[in-house]
Amino acid sequence: MTERAPRIRVQRRPVHGVLLLDKPLGLSSNDALQKAKWLLRAEKAGHTGTLDPLATGVLPLCFGAATKFSQLQLEAAKTYEAIAVLGTTTTTGDAEGEVLERREVDPAQLTPERLAAVQQQFTGPIRQVPPMHSALKKDGKALYEYARAGVTVEREPRGIVIHALKLALTRTDQALFAIKIIVTCSKGTYIRTLGEDIGAALGCGAHLSFLRRIDTGGIGVERCVTLAQLEAMPEAERLASLEAPESLLAGHTRVTLDGENAARFLSGVRRRGNWPDASAVAVFGESPPALLGVGHIVGGELVPGRLLSPLEIQQILESTPHSASMAHSGTLEKL
Q1: 215 belongs to the catalytic site
Q2: By C-alpha distance, which of 90, 294, 61, 45 is closest to 196?
Q3: Which helix (H) or strand (E) element contains residue 206?
Q4: Out of 2, 73, 152, 175, which residue is the most buried by the measure of CB atoms under 10 Å away?
Q5: Which pLDDT score is estimated for 324?
Q6: How far is 2 from 106, CA to CA, in rounded Å?
Q7: DSSP strand pairing (278-285 vs 253-257)
Q8: How far apart, in whole angstroms, are the C-alpha atoms of residue 323 and residue 290?
Q9: How far apart are alpha carbons 122 and 174 in whole angstroms?
Q10: CB distance 113 to 120 below 8 Å
Q11: Closest listed residue to residue 211, CA positions, set 23, 6, 18, 7
Q12: Over the chain, what is the mean pLDDT?
């Protein structure tokens, strides 16, 4: 009997920042997170919304203080590229499921005018029935658990928003007719279901064979690194590949406070100033220039929201070079 090699124990450390990951095919979001967490030896980590194992693309991973702002990415609009193969429906809405039905595809019916009409039909506010193969819960149990047991439960349609949709006729490697989908959508949209619904509207059914998230909240896939790239880096480069926690705060109004006001804000005390109302504010200290947290401004009052701890701020300052040009006392800017 061969002896099992001793498991290497990783010495964890405080890591603060955002890893913009291009998630690989076949890994769950949590598997990708745990792999990156292990490579960075990070103490605390979380992701910003799941991607199916069969999907690739943008998955921002938050470490340390950045986890306090992960909800912002959960709420952000997302853009996907997908391929919906026409003529075949499956139990899961993608290529992993068992075939439910095959129908003949008539290319003469797939005119640009027909695609434009369907594109219009699925643009804007629409309602969508969540798929059985999803993590949504009913009576405390995930829908995919019912599905695996062969049970179908009733699901209420949910309101979503398709901000932009582009459909184009294409062919797969097997020369099957398919629709290339580029869609920007709100939180809660199931692209598999959208593909199925588009196939139904075209009268022939469809299932997804490819899904890639190319943008989330303005973070494009071109800014992302892969797990393979991360693994090949020396450890110092891995840490350097992280973006600062404030990279999640794009669009927030920036306020910089002097030392006394910064300390009071960090204690959760409202500050008064000559500021216009703003619903989303990123607050920085002046000296040293460091992110303190987020809040909002109403009636000239800066109201604290999610705050970093003094220890987190110290650890970030010790690990990240900060430019003195970031400090502008009392000023307002857009990040």
Answers
A1: no
A2: 90
A3: strand 206-216
A4: 73
A5: 34
A6: 60
A7: parallel
A8: 10
A9: 28
A10: no
A11: 23
A12: 90
